[in-house]
Design brief:
InterPro entries: DUF881 (IPR010273). Belongs to the UPF0749 family. Keywords: Coiled coil, Membrane, Transmembrane, Transmembrane helix. The protein is α+β, with helices and mostly antiparallel strands. It has two domains: about 80 residues; about 130 residues, Alpha-Beta Plaits. The strands form two sheets. Strands 3-2-7-1-8 form a five-stranded antiparallel beta sheet. A three-stranded antiparallel beta sheet has the order 4-5-6, with no helix packed on it.
Length: about 240
C-alpha cells in the first residue's frame, strides 16, 4: 500500500513537473513568436518611414528647383518692368517735348505768368538831333525778344501778334510790321515764362534795358499773373 502511494506520489510529482515544463515551453514559444512578430512589424514600419522620408526629400528637391525657377522668373519680370518703366518715361518725355514744340510753333493756345515790356519813342527830341535816334527800331525789339527767349520764355507776342519760328519783323518809320501786320508805338512785348528769371535777365547791368535807355527808348517792365495767347492760324504760319 505504501509502495502504491509512493508510486502515485511520484506520478503526481512527475505530472506537476511535466505540467510546469509544458507551461514554460508554451510560454517561451509564445514569447519568441511575439518577439519575431514585433521585429517583422518594426521592419515594415521602418520601410514605410524610409519610403515616406525619401518622398519628402524628393519633394523638397522639386520645391527647391521650382523656387529657383520662380526667382529667375521674378528677376525677368523685374527687368521687364524696369524696361517698361524706362520706355514709359521716354514716351512721357517725348509727349512733353511734342507739346512744348507745338507751343513754340504756335499750334496750341498758351497762358501763364510772365512779363510785359513796353517800348515807346522818346517824348522829347532836341532840335539839333536826328529823330531816328529817338524812336523804336526793329533792332531794339529784337534785343528784347532774344533776351526773353534766352531766359526761357515759352511764348512771345508783340501787340497781341503771337510770334512763331518763321516770324519776321521790320521797321517802317513810326510803325513796325510783324508778320505782315503793322503796329504803331507803344510796342508791347508780352512773354510767358518765369518772371523771377525774365525780369532780372532784362535788368542786368549793361543788359537790354540799359542799352535801350542809352538809345533814348522809354522802357517799362511789368510782371503779369496771367498772359493768354491764342494759337496761330495755319495761314498765318504759312504766310510767315
Amino acid at each position: 500500500m505504501k509502495a502504491i502511494l509512493k508510486l502515485r506520489g511520484r506520478y503526481v510529482i512527475l505530472s506537476l513537473i511535466f505540467l510546469v515544463l509544458g507551461f514554460l515551453i508554451s510560454y517561451s514559444y509564445q514569447l519568441t513568436k511575439e518577439k519575431n512578430s514585433n521585429q517583422t512589424l518594426s521592419t515594415e514600419q521602418w520601410d514605410e518611414e524610409y519610403e515616406t522620408r525619401s518622398l519628402l526629400i524628393e519633394e523638397e528637391k522639386t520645391n527647391k528647383t521650382l523656387q529657383e525657377e520662380l526667382y529667375k522668373k521674378q528677376e525677368e519680370v523685374k527687368k521687364i518692368e524696369e524696361s517698361l518703366k524706362s520706355e514709359k518715361q521716354v514716351y512721357y518725355n517725348l509727349v512733353e517735348d511734342v507739346e512744348k514744340y507745338r507751343m513754340y510753333v504756335g499750334d496750341l493756345p498758351v497762358k501763364g505768368k510772365g512779363v510785359e515790356i513796353s517800348l515807346e519813342d522818346a517824348s522829347y527830341v532836341p532840335d539839333s538831333e536826328n529823330v531816328n535816334n529817338y524812336i523804336v527800331h526793329e533792332s531794339h525789339i529784337f534785343k528784347v525778344i532774344n533776351e526773353l527767349y534766352i531766359s526761357g520764355a515759352d511764348a512771345i507776342s508783340i501787340n497781341g501778334q503771337r510770334l512763331s519760328s518763321n516770324s519776321y519783323i521790320f521797321c517802317n518809320g513810326p510803325v513796325i510790321t510783324v508778320d505782315g501786320n503793322q503796329f504803331p508805338a507803344p510796342f508791347v512785348i508780352s512773354a510767358i515764362g518765369d518772371p523771377s528769371v525774365l525780369i532780372p535777365a532784362l535788368n542786368i547791368v549793361g543788359g537790354v534795358i540799359d542799352q535801350l535807355t542809352y538809345d533814348n527808348i522809354v522802357v517799362s517792365v511789368q510782371e503779369k499773373d496771367e498772359i493768354k495767347m491764342d494759337p496761330l492760324l495755319q495761314e498765318q504760319k504759312t504766310s510767315s
